[in-house]
Write a structure and sequence with these properties.
With about 675 residues, the chain is of the alpha/beta class. Helix content is about 40%, strand content about 20%. The chain has a 7-stranded mixed β-sheet. Helix 8 (about 200-230) crosses helix 22 (about 640-655), helix 9 packs antiparallel against helix 11 and helix 20 packs antiparallel against helix 21. It starts with a helix and ends in an 11-residue tail after the last helix. Bound molecules: adenosine-5'-diphosphate (ADP) and magnesium ion. Adenosine-5'-diphosphate binds next to helix 11. Adenosine-5'-diphosphate binds near residues 255 and 286. Keywords: ATP-binding, DNA damage, DNA recombination, DNA repair, DNA-binding, Helicase, Hydrolase, Isomerase, Nucleotide-binding. Pfam families: DEAD (PF00270), Helicase_C (PF00271), RecG_dom3_C (PF19833), RecG_wedge (PF17191).
């Protein structure tokens, strides 16, 4: 092709090579064997193809309301065709009086059958319809591409020409034994069939094959890394369960561990005794008691002569971890310090010294922990809370803090659907704390519309009269911070009137405040000096106040599901019945409605995570945005769970029987891995 078209393919679709073009798959197929008559159309049909004549064309409306309306007729009736875009261009190019094959979704507007932005193709009797194809591919294109004759049709021609010229050079890229085992369509055949399927059946087989590949190579890389890590990185062997662990467990622990907590501690115990490096993700819903699991793991390290650290994503969370660990430990079991960005220089120097001479056992902190100045005498165990805010790069920096890398325990309160976990965290072992401590009453969740605001205030007053405390959270979303602060201020004004001094005291915390002021306001609430905490989402992963029994979320429709769930988890930490009230506008999008309904229906974090994945797709979940990790063209983690499991098991088997991929039958895969770029750009997961 000429340089002009090549250029526009590059800039518009990111197509640089033949390979890229081949992987520009159709997003849809038109079943060209099926035709309808206008009289048969109804608005319930997803799409229909009709042969008829364009008998009239006129431009109506002005400026923004401008549109092009056509009348289209066959021997059974007439319908309207409507375009809102490219009006002048279409007006020039469409030929009134000619016969067209049109394709689109029938709708009814003003009692009149119509089709918006139908695909139009001149009907040429004599030539066979669209060649011999029954399923005609439809490719995404752009205005710019269309100027170069690269509309869907144009791209189709390119694909056909390309396939014809390179077909003999296309080869299978998976080992034969895998192709046979999984009954896959051979790759060259699949690449042809996805563009030019001869039947629905052939298309499905091609899609399955190409989806398989997408998932397969991700798993191959992930599991290879995991294998390498266990081989390459010897771990510190924790030989004993020692005195401190036992003393803590028998004398200090104020409650009985749940079975899930026990199971996870056992898994960690087993890993750390094995001599290999532990790399484990612990998933546990908010309130499931991850902190104590982390603490006991760290005591295990201390008992074996190592130091441990716990890293949290925010200052407030680090402080809270520090305080609860101090509280849990009591005196004398192990020494603990807190290191954050705001630790004064003098204290910092003392901590540095104690870390280096080994007198400090456990360090809790923020990113400040990974600075180079922080050197441990013998770091053996690292806990990272809220994984998705830290990249693998940061994990790696902690690795390098000892000659043998420390064990790595990653904790997340955002339950991740299994498929996503297998793809995102495929190089980690996964533990799940799927049980809440006994005696917790499930949080009751209610959805109130704005019109019930007074009822909500009344309810809050009742709870405060019982001695409880209340959170009121406003959305604060970066792009519109100014707007959001206005919401917050307007809300506050109303609250101050409704809850006046001296009877009521209110704490206010938002992202624009200095850390010191935030801390002071939080402390007032923690100590019970204020009854209401008004906050933006900064408390999302923050405070633990068992006496707080109500969480009110304003503009709840603006929050994502997992965020709502996280916020709700701030209450229900004490013995009292707790409530979550979702306030919303009357006007709700279908999706917002679904989100709020899901919240009202269930407290189960995993169910919510699944719903979130279905609603938003994997690209938006848990910081995977723009990560490129899930750059899947065909495979869909919400619907392809079965295939993903098949793929993952297949790769596990593969490495079990041939860990080095040394067997000649796996040569293709070995080559792929040496060629492959150094895995996925994890550090972009922020
Ligand atoms: P999260 O998993 O959200 O980090 P935490 O570790 O903060 O949860 O625990 C939540 C609360 O539950 C804390 O106050 C903690 O002391 C308490 N807790 C943890 N485990 C148990 C248990 N087995 N029984 C009773 N209370 C527990
Ligand atoms: Mg926690």
């Amino acid at each position: 092709m000429g340089p002009g078209r090549a250029d526009v393919l590059r800039t518009e679709l990111g197509i640089h090579t033949f390979g890229d073009l081949l992987r520009h798959y159709p997003f849809r197929y038109i079943d060209r064997t099926q035709f309808h008559k206008i009289a048969q159309l109804n608005p319930d049909m997803p799409a229909a193809q009709i042969i008829g004549r364009l008998v009239h064309l006129e431009e109506t409306g002005e400026r923004r309301g401008k549109r092009l309306v056509g009348h289209f007729r066959d021997d059974t009736g007439t319908m309207e065709l409507v375009w809102f875009q490219s009006v002048s261009w279409l007006r020039k190019s469409l030929q009134v009086g000619s016969a067209y094959v049109i394709y689109g979704k029938p709708t009814v507007f003003n009692n009149q059958l119509s089709m918006t932005h139908p695909e139009m193709e001149l009907y040429q009797p004599g030539t066979k319809l669209s060649g011999s194809m029954s399923l005609q591919p439809v490719y995404s294109s752009t205005e710019k591409l269309k100027k170069y004759n690269l509309d869907s049709k144009g791209i189709q021609k390119l694909q056909a020409a390309l396939l014809e010229s390179i077909l003999t050079q296309l080869t299978e890229e998976l080992p034969d034994h895998l192709v046979h085992k999984h009954q896959l369509m051979p790759l060259p055949q699949a690449l042809v069939a996805i563009h030019f399927p001869r039947s629905q059946q052939e298309l499905l087989a091609a899609i399955r094959r190409l989806k398989f590949d997408e998932l397969f190579y991700i798993q191959l890389k992930l599991l290879k890394n995991k294998l390498l890590n266990t081989q390459k990185y010897k771990g510190h062997r924790f030989a004993v369960v020692g005195e401190r662990f036992n003393r803590f467990y028998h004398e200090q622990l104020p409650f009985a561990l749940t079975n899930a907590q026990k199971r996870v501690i056992k898994e960690i115990r087993k890993d750390t005794a094995s001599g290999a490096q532990l790399n484990r993700l612990v998933q546990g819903d908010v309130g499931s008691g991850k902190t104590v699991v982390a603490l006991m793991s760290m005591l295990l390290a201390v008992d074996n002569g190592f130091q441990a650290c716990l890293m949290a994503p925010t200052e407030i969370l680090a402080q809270q971890h520090y305080q609860s660990i101090r509280r849990l430990l009591g005196n004398g079991i192990a020494s603990v310090q807190l290191l954050t960005g705001s630790t004064p220089k003098k204290d910092r120097q003392i901590i540095h010294r104690q870390l280096e001479d080994g007198t400090l056992d456990i360090l809790v902190g923020t990113h400040a922990l990974i600075e180079d100045a922080v050197r441990f005498k013998n770091l053996g165990f690292v806990v990272i809370d809220e994984q998705h805010r830290f990249g693998v790069e940061q994990r790696a920096r902690l690795w390098r803090k000892n000659s043998i890398p420390p064990h790595m325990l990653v904790m997340t309160a955002t339950p991740i659907p299994r498929t996503l976990a297998m793809t995102l965290y495929g190089d980690l072992d996964i533990s799940v704390i799927d049980e809440l401590p006994a005696g917790r009453k499930p949080i009751k969740t209610l959805h109130f519309y704005e019109s019930s605001r007074l009822r909500m205030f009344g309810f809050i007053k009742e709870e405060i009269a019982k001695g409880r405390q209340v959170y009121i959270v406003y959305p604060l979303i970066k792009e519109s911070e100014k707007m959001d602060l206005l919401y917050l201020e307007a809300g506050l004004e109303l609250l101050m009137k409704e809850f006046p001094l001296p009877q009521y005291h209110i704490s206010i915390v938002h992202g624009k405040m200095a850390v010191k002021d935030k801390e002071w306001e939080m402390q007032r609430f923690v100590k019970g000096q204020t009854q209401i905490m008004v906050a933006t989402t900064v408390i999302e992963v923050g405070v633990d106040v068992p006496n707080a029994s109500v969480m009110v979320i304003e503009n709840a429709e603006r929050f994502g599901l997992s965020q709502l769930h996280q916020l709700r988890g701030r209450v229900g930490r004490g013995a009292e019945q707790s409530y979550c009230i979702l306030m919303s506008n009357h006007k709700l999008s279908k999706e917002s409605k679904l989100r709020l309904e899901t919240m009202v229906r269930t407290n189960d974090g995993f169910e919510i995570a699944e719903a979130d994945l279905r609603l938003r797709g994997p690209g938006d979940i848990a910081g995977t945005q723009q990560s490129g990790v899930l750059n899947l063209k065909l495979a869909d983690l919400t619907t392809d769970q079965a295939l993903l499991t098949e793929v993952r098991n297949s790769v596990i088997d593969l490495f079990k029987t041939d860990p080095q991929l040394a067997n000649p039958i796996n040569a293709l895969l070995r080559e792929y891995l040496t060629r492959a770029e150094p895995t996925i750009s994890w550090e972009k997961i922020s």
